[in-house]
């Protein structure tokens, strides 16, 4: 297996682990939904076993995300010009529309890696945020957090 393939497999595995944590799925529960063993889920998450296309499709269906989610933030996840695909792949989640410089983009990539998303406090914050039923209140809270973050940087 090539080094690039291994890094892609590890990236996809981290995305599986992230979604499993966000959705509160144990490895056993996810394995049962896929009809495989929890050990196989462990191997996927570590990137030691490659996730096939059909299995990736099933994971996307279970987690209710587009298949492309598993490849978001992967370096080079755009379509090269001239192979019949004329648009870049859109990321799963878009930012707030603010312009980024190359410097802030690089810093953001370094500091907002998938590892941050897997921290217990991040998961707790996300769960608390989405437990707020009123969308307007959630948006106000998000705007407040963005403002505080901007002022502190």
Automatic annotation (TrEMBL):
Residues 85-109 have a biased composition (Basic and acidic residues). InterPro entries: Cro/C1-type_HTH, Lambda_DNA-bd_dom_sf. Pfam families: HTH_3. Residues 16-70 form the HTH cro/C1-type domain. Residues 82-109 are annotated as: Disordered. Gene3D superfamilies: lambda repressor-like DNA-binding domains. This is Transcriptional regulator. It comes from Bombella mellum.
């Amino acid at each position: 297996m090539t080094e690039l393939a291994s890094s892609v497999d590890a990236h996809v595995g981290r995305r599986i682990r992230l979604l499993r944590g966000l959705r509160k799925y144990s490895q056993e529960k996810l394995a049962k939904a896929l009809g495989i063993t929890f050990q196989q889920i462990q191997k996927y998450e570590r990137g030691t076993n490659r996730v096939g296309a059909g299995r990736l499709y099933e994971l996307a269906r279970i987690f209710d995300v587009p298949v492309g989610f598993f490849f978001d933030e992967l370096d080079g996840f755009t379509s090269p010009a001239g192979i019949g695909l004329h648009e870049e792949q859109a990321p799963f989640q878009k930012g707030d529309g603010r312009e980024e410089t190359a410097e802030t983009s690089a810093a953001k990539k370094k500091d907002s890696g998938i590892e941050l998303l897997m921290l217990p406090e991040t998961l707790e914050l996300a769960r608390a945020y989405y437990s707020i039923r009123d969308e307007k209140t959630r948006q106000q809270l998000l705007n407040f957090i963005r403002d505080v973050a901007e002022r502190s940087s």
